[in-house]
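A protein record in our archive is deliberately plain, so that people and models can read it alike. The tokens are whole numbers drawn from a learned vocabulary of local backbone shapes. For reference, a complete record is included directly beneath this paragraph.
>
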Amino acid sequence: MSNHLETAQRVVVKIGSALLTDAETGKLNRTWLQAMVEDIARMRARGQDMLIVSSGAISLGRRALKLPAGKLKLEESQAAAAVGQIGLAHAFQEILSAYGFSCAQILLTLEDTEERRRYLNARSTINTLLKLGAVPVINENDTVATTEIRYGDNDRLAARVASMVSADCLVLLSDVDGLYTAPPHLPGAKHIPEVAEITPEIEGMAGDAASIYSRGGMKTKIAAARIATEGGARMAIANGRTLRPLQAVEEGARVTWFAAHSTPFAARKRWISGSLKSAGTITIDDGAVKALIQGRSLLPAGVREVEGDFERGDAVTVRDLQGQEIARGLTAYDSRDARIIKGHSSREIEDLLGYSGRAEMIHRDDLVLKKP
């Protein structure tokens, strides 16, 4: 099963706190991180998009602030994150730059991946960074996230990021090498190399976090697997304690793979077409209809009418001049701005709106044609 990682086009790697920081001193494990970046560089060199979801900011910050061991209050965690994020970002930037890669730090909250406008902005930013050759390093924005808007663990955040950017592979690196039928230290516990479907029995095998530096145990990894696989990504739980852990996975190290339910492309299209309520209607001319059928985006020039009151990121119905529904998509403009730019060239958007918006009314990645 190791070839899943080798053949993936876009890979999200989640790094746990227990790997990045020394359990006794709380210091950054630079030797491990250096070897990990060698893996990233090797995979980038063969054409794979690589994203990192990294824990560790709170662990580093609590050491710098000399906070006591044990559970921290929310405000203490946020203060530690504010300090630790600087050190963590600097370490990634320093090591990645040695391999010729730019490093981008992205801080997200739960709301950023659930509220569609923020979701679209984050997705667009990450895709642009990847096109420009940067390696995004993503973490939960612990500094500002309150209990109501936080994940609380980076396993589920990594899965949501994988779904958001249409990754086809997610690797959770931690201090375990996969899922077992029982806690691994118990006699008779058997390793499970592949999970075809997440059943109640599989969920029942999950335990809790084993490390004081970790907020995510096996339960959160199973929850992450459900998010990732429904989004079209295969997911692996792998032991990251060895140097160059991704190479170890490729060479056959023991892991647990969770099978994807579909491709990322199909999963996203299904979400747009079937899971979102239409907030308005856009009527387009015959030339735009032809362009959509050919797989192109919907440009403002092809829009004749805009109906309804919707916000950027909402799902809208696309109809032809005869009133037939031909597509559904996520609009890049709210209804007010859409009415202003309809029928105009994309080059005119800045003059019309006073800001440089997107060239497309609906990008082809955010649009699903209705089957005849």
Summary: The first strand starts at residue 10 and ends at 15. Residues 74-97 form the longest helix (24 residues). Residues 3-263 form a domain with the Carbamate kinase fold (CATH 3.40.1160.10). The CA atoms of residues 17 and 213 lie 6 Å apart.
